[in-house]
Amino acid sequence: MTENILTIISVVINLAVVAAIIVVVSRALQMFKNLTAMNKKIYEKIDVILDKLENKEDK
Fold it and tell me: Which of 26, 37, 57, 59 has the fewest CB atoms inside 10 Å of its own CB, making it the most exposed?
């Protein structure tokens, strides 16, 4: 009887660990997506600044 209870407890703990790993991986993916989106916006702003500087040099 105690072996069955210990087995159930270990299964529950393992499921909790797997769920925690899934949550951590999904949050890491979200952070990576946000980082790439932020980098894209920064590059767009840099392009605008460079275009303005090139226009000033041409005049």
Answer: 59
Amino acid in position 10: S
DSSP annotation of 1 reads -
Name the token pair of 8: 């159930």
pLDDT of residue 1: 76
Instruction: Compute the distance between CA of residue 40 and CA of residue 34 in angstroms, rounded to an integer.
Output: 10
The helix (H) or strand (E) run that includes residue 3 is helix 2-58
In whole angstroms, give the CA distance from residue 42 to residue 37: 9
